[in-house]
Amino acid sequence: MGIEKFTFSRWVRERFEKYDLGSLKTAVHKPWAVRRELNSLGVNLNKLYYRYVDDSDALDVMAADWDTLVILDATRYDVFTQTNWLDGDLHRVRSGASHSIEFVHRNFEGRELHDTVYVTANPYVRELSEGTFHSVNSLLEAYDTFRAIRPDKMTEEAIAAHEEFPNKRLVVHYMQPHAPFIGEYGQYLQSEYLGGKEVAGARWMEEVVWDPNHPLDVEMVKKAYRENLEIALDEAERLASNLDGKTVITADHGELFGERTRPIPARLYGHEPFVHYGNLVSVPWFELPTDERREIRADPPEERDRTTEVTDDQLAALGYL
Fold first, then answer.
1. Checking phi first, is residue 29 left (phi over 0); if not, alpha (psi -120 to 50) or beta?
2. Residue 168: per-residue pLDDT
3. What pLDDT shows up at residue 199?
4. How far is Cα 153 from Cα 142, in angstroms, rounded to an integer?
5. CA–CA separation, 130 vs 118, rounded Å?
6. What is the DSSP string of 247-314?
7. Using CA atoms, how far apart are residues 46 and 40, in angstroms rounded to an integer?
8. What pLDDT shows up at residue 79?
9. What's the CATH fold of domain 61-317?
10. Is the dihedral angle over the CA atoms 128, 131, 133, 139 positive or is it negative?
11. Backbone angles phi, psi at 165, to 5 degrees
12. pLDDT tens-digit profile of 55-67?
């Protein structure tokens, strides 16, 4: 797939391809849809700006000190501090990415990480070149009725990976708190306010919050997001208790709930690549206490392919299509 830079000409071309006379009727009856499109232009122009912003202070996660790195997808630093109950040492760090595809390219792609095993529920595992890690275990086949990969399944696979590769560093990439929302309240929102429609990524959130007549509001979304984070933290705690060595919990990027980005004050819901601003790149770095370290060694990559093909349905469930 590759990582694609935003260009203004491409944005204009896509809009001409997207809209027709029916869109003009929509604009007349739903003026908020026009505001949403103008806001989208602002967000995308900001992407051009962030191409030239120095982010040399962003953390290189693979150069940091850990034996197990737990990535909780789309976790904001501020919400993590409000939600976390685990004992440990918390720092705020700057991610070099505002989207998973950026994170994979910036931290993993083009490197030889043969002392590390990658267990992931993130679809952008497909961006990795063969032989990047010693072993890659993609759980995309575990996609369930929530249109998500359950964090308990991730924990079980990560424990099994450690048992199989006890002398390797371990990266465990959970998809929560990223939508779809799998908790009781999140499922209630889906049933009560979306008519059973799958809660898929940030795009449905953007649709309903721009519509002033929709009963679902951002505070409800935040509550479901926090619930997802609590579920993920439960599993991160269970994982750490079953592993030796130093465990760190972090995120690939953050999440926005309608905050205005810069320099153009356009609102953003969810996350998009190349918007390296505020809570989109401010993430936790939480070190759990330990008295022991793992003995790590590098070995040639496995020859067998444990990855699973990513489907459009899976990407759509996460709001990427």
1. alpha
2. 98
3. 47
4. 8
5. 13
6. EEEE-S---EEEEE-SSS--EEEE--TT---GGGTEEEEEEPP-S--------PPPSS----PPPHHH
7. 10
8. 98
9. Alkaline Phosphatase, subunit A (3.40.720)
10. positive
11. -125, 70
12. 889 999 999 999 9
Positions of the chain with pLDDT lower than 70, given as ranges? 1-29, 142-147, 194-209, 304-321
Q: Report which residue type is found at 229.
A: L
Alpha helices (H) along 132-217: 151-164, 184-193, 203-210
Task: Give the DSSP letter of residue 126.
Answer: G
Res 74: pLDDT: 97
- CA atoms within 13 A of residue 152's CA, in its CB half-sphere: 4
User: Other CB atoms closer than 10 Å to residue 244's CB: what's the count?
Assistant: 16
Residue among 206, 288, 284, 286 nearest 252 (CA) = 284
Determine the number of helices (DSSP H) and then strands (DSSP E) in the chain: 10, 9
Is 86:237 a contact under the CB 8 Å cutoff?
A: yes
| Distance from C-alpha of 39 to C-alpha of 190, rounded to nearest angstrom | 26
Q: Are 287 and 88 in contact, with CB atoms under 8 Å apart?
A: yes
Q: Using alpha carbons, list the distances in angstroms from residue 136 to 90, 116, 149, 219, 251.
A: 28, 9, 16, 37, 19
The whole-number pLDDT of residue 308 equals 54
- Strand 169-174 to 68-72 pairing: parallel
